[in-house]
Amino acid sequence: MNLFLYILVIIVVCSVALVFGAFAFCMHSKIKAVDLMNKLFNDASQKLNTLDKLDEENISIRMEGIYALQRLAENAPNGRERQRAVDALCQYLKNHRSVDAFAEPDTFLEEDEKAIIRALVQLSQTYKSRIQINLSRTNLYFADFRGAYLERADFTGAYCEDAFFGETHCEAALFIGADCMSAMFTEAHCEGAVFEGAHCEGANFSRSYCKNAGFSGAHCEGTDFIDANCENATFWGLHCEKTDFTDAVQYGADFRYTKDIKKAIGLEYSKIIY
Fold first, then answer.
1. Nearest Cα residue to 86 out of 139, 127, 35
2. What DSSP assignment string belongs to 110-145?
3. First to last CA, the chain
4. I need a labelling partner for 136 at 20 to 30 A (CA). Which of 8, 55, 152, 156 fits?
5. Using one digit for the tens of pLDDT, what is the confidence trace for 62-114?
6. Domain definitions of the chain by residue range
7. CA 198 distance to own-chain centroid
8. 56, burial (CB in 10 Å: exposed 0-12, middle 13-18, buried 19+)
C-alpha cells in the first residue's frame, strides 16, 4: 500500500512538473515571438524613416522598410500587430504629406509614397474592414486607391484633388472638409460616406452607390452623379450649380436649404425632399 501511494505521489509530482514546464515553455516562446515582432517592426520603421528624401540610396532603404512593414502586416499573429504596421505606413504619409506643409498642393507623390499607397490598397483588399486607414489632413494629390477597401477610412481634411477612388469600397468613410475636386469615384461604394463641407467640384460619382451618404454643405458645382444611387442621401445646403443627377436614383434624397437647387441638372422633384 505504501509503495502504491509512493508511486502515485511521484506520478502526480511529475505531472505537475510537466504542466508547469509546458506553461513556462509556452510563455517563453510567446515572449520571444513578441520580442521578434517588436524587433522586426522597429527595424522596418527605422528604414522607412531614413532621412534625406532625395538621396537615391536612402529611398531604396525606405522602400525596404515599406515592404517589410507590409510583410509584417500580412504575417501578423493578430489584428493589433497588423494594425500597428498599417498605422506606421499611414503615419509616414501623414508626416511627410501633411496638407499644412505644401505651399503648392498640386505636388505629385514620390516613389516611396506611391509604394505606401499600393501597400495600403493591397492590404485593404486582403483584410478589408479588419484594418483601419487614417490619412486625415494628408496631401494625396493624384493618389491611386482604385479597388481599395476603405470602409470607415478617415480622409477628413485631406487633399484628394484628382485622386482615383474608382470601384473602391468607401462605406462610412469620412471625407469631411476634404478637397476632392476632380476626383474620380466612378462605381465606388460610398454608402453612408460623409462628404460634409467637402469640395467636390468637378468630381465624378457616376454609377456610384451613395445611398445614405452625406453631402451637406458640400461644393459639388459641375459634379457628375449620372446613374448614381443617391437614395436617402443628404444634400442639405448643397452648392449644386450644374451638378448632374441625370438617371440617378433619387428616392428620399434630401435637398433642404439648398438655395440654387434649380441650377442642378436632372433632378426629379417628385422623388426628392426640398
1. 127
2. PHHHHHHHHHHHHHHHHHGGGS--B-TTBB-TT-B-
3. 94
4. 55
5. 899 999 999 999 999 999 999 999 999 999 999 999 999 888 899 999 999 99
6. 19-116, 140-274
7. 17
8. exposed
What cell was used for 153? 477610412
Instruction: Give the contacts of 235 (CB within 8 A, at least 6 positions apart).
Output: 215, 216, 218, 253, 254, 255, 258
Q: Which three cell numbers stand for residue 46?
A: 527605422
Other Cβ atoms less than 10 A from the Cβ of 207: the count is 19
Residue 73 C-alpha cell reads as 502586416
From CA 146, how far away is CA 168, in angstroms rounded? 6
C-alpha cell at 183: 476626383
The answer to whether 265 and 247 have CB atoms below 8 angstroms apart is no
Third-level CATH fold of 140-274: Pectate Lyase C-like (2.160.20)
Tell me how far apart the alpha carbons of residues 47 and 264 are, in angstroms, rounded to a whole number.
51
Cell of 39: 524587433
The DSSP annotation for 58-72 comes to HHHHHHHHHHHHHHH
